[in-house]
Design goal:
449 residues; alpha/beta; FAD/NAD(P)-binding domain; 2 domains; 4-stranded mixed beta sheet; 10 helices; globular; disordered C terminus; binds flavin-adenine dinucleotide
């Protein structure tokens, strides 16, 4: 039977952060997840605390840390070092980020022609954050036959000053559409196909040339160009460099509907860093059951396509996301269940689950549902007593965050994953535990080196 010092359940930003930090400290780490995570849905940027009314992420962080019951109330000191640590690991895998906690939150365009607040973005999106100079133009560049990006509609929407929320936007927004090599007859191109084609240097050279020519014809001599987020997957850094070098306007990517190419880049960089640090990861493994000994998890069984695998473990990080991630599931009777360990869930009464106004600025009542923990991120019961000594909870599963309004979940994921690993690694190394037989079988044995 395989064994690990730490099993991380969940392959999102929080699970990867915890797994990578623990693996770097020498722990044998196994990540198990039933599927891909919020990474494949998101923008690839890091929302830390994009709270309306906050000038910077640090401002927002300060406000949320002062909010009773918010995860930042126990994690705010971890965020900055965790973020810097993670950025260096991602940069080592070729994925660089720009902006920090003190970068002013700016309105950046979206691929449906709106704007959203952002500050810390992958390099390919970062040019969108800089304030627009008087007279500066924006060209939205679409690809003929690509169904998920409508440059004329985006440009028309971004031409309306009110979209920019009271700050100055571009002086003029235009749209161009470019036919890329060999794709004239196609009407159903996907972001993934285009990103993979751009990874090919020969095809890319031709494609970039056509885009450059179209931008020159648009008459915008200076300014920026918004492109769909398709600038390469495996060779993204080289694709971005070539677009920057050859286009007459400064390019930036607009994230698209899922699957998100910037999110996939983030996932692949996290995964590569984890494997480089000696960690293991298996996707497609829903947790079937967990063996326990008193207040300790001792083995985790997961269900793959044709078999059940059991991993003995000294500890566990539960990073299964909240309702969106699949870590919490509701039944018809108004009960929210935590699906892996049946932990106590903090949630509003059933009668309060639905807000009268779907766009209530205070957020959806169920958003804050999750697992309450102590300062070491151990799950606790209603009296505040830890229910598992060697389990930590990280990411969206933590109670008390309202990410639609607070735009904080990436920051919570990074800070909690980092702290979970640090407290857990101390437990794992300091307290070797004996494993006894549980429902999944297995004889008594130490699982730690
Ligand atoms: C559609 C969408 C839009 C979002 N928009 C924003 C936003 O605008 N701003 C913001 O701050 N955040 C947003 N988020 C949240 C954010 O992207 C992530 O939730 C955040 O990065 C934290 O991720 P996580 O690692 O905690 O969980 P997730 O990314 O949700 O990952 C959960 C992981 O747990 C695994 N899992 C769940 N149940 C089991 C099980 N029983 N067995 C095994 N594995 C299991 C899943 O397969 C997955 O790998 C959004 C999320 C989604 C889904």
């Amino acid at each position: 039977m395989p064994s690990a010092d730490l099993v991380v359940v969940g392959a999102g930003l929080s699970g990867h952060t915890a797994a990578l930090a623990a693996a770097e400290s020498g722990a044998r780490v196994q990540v198990l997840a039933k599927g891909h995570a919020g990474t494949h849905w998101g923008t690839g940027g890091f929302d830390i605390a994009g709270l309306p009314g906050s000038a910077t992420s640090r401002d927002g962080l300060r406000r949320l840390a002062a909010t009773r019951g918010h995860p930042y109330a126990i994690l705010s000191d971890d965020l900055e070092p965790a973020l810097e640590w993670l950025r260096t690991r991602l940069a080592a895998e070729g994925l660089t980020y720009e902006g920090d906690l003190d970068t002013p939150l700016a309105r950046v365009p979206t691929s449906i022609g709106g704007t959203r607040l952002a500050a810390i973005l992958p390099a390919a999106q970062a040019a969108a954050v800089r304030p627009w100079e008087p007279g500066e133009r924006l060209v939205v560049c679409g690809i003929a036959g690509f169904k998920d990006f409508w440059p004329d509609a985006i440009a028309a929407s971004l031409s309306r000053p009110r979209v920019w929320g009271g700050v100055a936007g571009p002086s003029r927004v235009d749209a161009v559409t470019v036919e890329l090599p060999g794709l004239a007859a196609r009407h159903n191109l996907s972001a993934l196909e285009l990103a993979r084609r751009l990874d090919d240097p020969a095809w890319r050279a031709d494609a970039v040339g056509r885009i450059a020519a179209a931008l020159e014809r648009s008459g915008a001599a200076t300014g920026r160009v918004a492109l769909p987020a398709i600038l390469g997957l495996d060779d993204h850094a080289a694709v971005l460099e070539e677009f920057r070098r050859r286009l007459p306007l400064e390019p930036f990517e607009l994230p698209l509907v899922p699957p998100s190419i910037p999110g996939m880049r983030l996932y692949y960089a996290l995964r590569a860093a984890l494997i480089r640090a000696g960690g293991r990861i298996q996707i497609g493994e829903a947790i079937a059951h967990v063996d326990r000994d008193a207040d300790r998890v001792i083995a985790v069984a997961s269900e793959a396509a044709a078999r059940t695998t059991t991993v003995r473990t000294g500890s566990m990080v539960l990073a299964t996301g909240g309702i969106a991630g699949g870590g919490l599931v509701a039944d018809h009777g108004g009960h929210l269940e935590e699906v892996v360990l049946d932990l106590p869930v903090e949630a509003p009464e059933f009668a309060d689950w639905l807000a009268p106004d779907a766009f209530d600025p205070a957020g959806h009542p169920l958003e804050g549902a999750g697992i309450r923990t102590d300062a070491d991120l151990r799950p606790v019961d209603q009296s505040g007593k830890p229910v598992f000594e060697n389990v930590r909870v990280a990411g969206s599963l933590l109670a008390g965050q309202r990410y639609l309004r607070e735009r904080c979940r990436d920051g919570v994921a990074i800070a909690s994953g980092w702290r979970a690993a640090r407290t857990m690694t101390a437990v794992a190394v300091a307290e070797p535990s004996a494993v006894t037989a549980g429902p999944g079988g297995g004889e008594a044995r130490s699982v730690l080196r």
